[in-house]
Amino acid sequence: MNALPPQDPKLLRRLLRAKDRMDAASHEDWPIARLAQVSHVSPAHFARSFKQAFGVPPHRYLLTRRIERAVALLRDTTLPTTEIALRTGWRSLGTFGRVFRDITGETPGQARARWRDAGPQHRHVPACIVGAAQRPHLKIAVSEKRRHLPHGTKEPTHQLQENDDEPGDTSGRHLRARSG
Q: Which residue pairs, CB below 8 angstroms and at least 24 apart, start in 66-73?
């Protein structure tokens, strides 16, 4: 596999501008066309360049930011889960709960209970460190992660590796997931 050529520093600055906008307003809708407009490039060029520069497509990056913010709100506030879902950009509580569980391996209620049970010792750790330590792993799509797990599995999906679905894989898990 050939290495990709390095990106133009001017393009990288424009991509960072779009990434910063997503960070500042992750609760907003960020379609590719809007991000491309911020970066002053075509939508197709933006999508390719963003993934090359940051390792994930723009949508997955936005999902990561939304889930990080939701985790922080669950941990640090007593806001209802519905309010947290709305504040972090979700229009449906069901979708928020499903994606949260698929990415973190636990429901929003379980995450909140875990933090509550942990007590105040995490309050001494800076929020940026806690956020980085709990950053969701989104190298593959959420639907791909779900497809890789057998039905009823409760283990966190963020531990799946990208190469779990190798061509020629004849494991029962792979075949069961495809027959569904």
A: 66/26, 66/27, 66/90, 67/99, 67/100, 67/103, 67/104, 67/136, 68/131, 68/134, 68/135, 68/136, 69/26, 69/27, 70/96, 70/100, 70/108, 71/104, 71/111, 71/131, 71/134, 72/127, 72/130, 72/131
Q: Write out pLDDT tens, residues 32-75.
A: 999 999 999 999 999 999 999 999 999 999 999 999 999 999 99
User: What would the two tokens of residue 76 be?
Assistant: 């640090």
Residues 6+ apart with CB under 8 A from 120: none
pTM beyond 0.85, yes or no: no
